[in-house]
TrEMBL record:
This is Tryptophan--tRNA ligase. SUPFAM superfamilies: Nucleotidylyl transferase (SSF52374). The lineage of its organism: Bacteria, Bacillati, Actinomycetota, Actinomycetes, Pseudonocardiales. Pfam families: tRNA-synt_1b. The keyword Cell cycle does not apply. Coiled coil: none annotated. Belongs to the class-I aminoacyl-tRNA synthetase family. One of its GO terms (cellular component) is cytosol. One of its GO terms (molecular function) is ATP binding. It comes from Amycolatopsis albispora. NCBIfam families: trpS.
Amino acid sequence: MIRLSAITPSGHVHLGNHLGAIRRWAAEGKPDDLYFISDLHGMTSSHNPAVLRALAREQLAVLIAAGVGERTVFVQSDLARELGALTWVLECTCSYGEAARMIQFKEKSKGQAGVRLSLLTYPVLMAADILLQGAAQVPVGEDQRQHVELARVLARRFNATYGEVFTVPEAVLPPAAARVRDLSEPARKMSKSTRDAAGVLFVLDEPDALRRKIKRAVTDGGSTVAYDPEGRPGLANLLDILAGCVDGDPVELAAEYTSYGALKAAVTEAVVETLAPIRTAATALLDDPAELDRIRKAGATRAAERGEHRLQSALRLIGAG
Ligand code: ATP
Ligand code: MG
């Protein structure tokens, strides 16, 4: 049972990505699972090539540094030929209406000038990501469910029309993890693509930067420390972060602190302790390009080899070559 998950290099990796995804990939990942840096998906709207390339490398280093199995990781663009070919095959089984109906496309294209065609077709590339590898389970949040559903439809349709090639994938809900919120604006979640970095704790931030950001985190009114996500989201977020880092319970932790200052000091210590080893290992990898390239290449070769027979069968069955 292959599971497949990805992270897009749309910005620097943050604590939310780590607690909500990467940490689990490291702890629960099976040898057959696949985790990839979806840099091709980072080109569907205005982007800077050099920044995208650097971020993809950085994310690869962070994943490895965080303990995600070296043999399970690859960078999507290293399979650009295979994925490009399979995307074309799948586009030839997908109607325009099916792609145009995607909620993500509607939301992201609304009111935008010069919408890239790839914004419309990237769910088909995502189907190729999944189907090339024969992934059975794709853990995704609500926003990506419709895309996995499309991958299911295309897999079934191809199998029924041209011949059995693809495993029909299934979207699975990732285990519930508290959504880490932005420290300055707790109404929204911590995100890679947020412009203002003041409320975002990056995995590669220096301890001093982490300390400063946590010090400035909004804590709402009131003077007692209590866990009330509805009424006091900023404070609850700090408690969730602490709980996530020390593997504790936010309600129980709230009872241990009587001042914001003491709580923030504890949060800082816990975050620094969680991220420092990753930062050290990731920095070492980024300073050793040959080693990072070796890991990257091995991952790409493995992923490409694993999908090759499906790509060849699909091309043959659909009438190519
Ligand atoms: P973007 O702003 O580009 O959407 P992002 O920070 O939302 O970036 P994604 O690449 O969309 O990150 O998601 C990567 C993984 O990190 C997913 O598994 C997602 O559920 C998880 N994740 C993202 N943000 C958070 C968060 N704030 N708290 C917990 N998990 C998160
Ligand atoms: Mg996101």
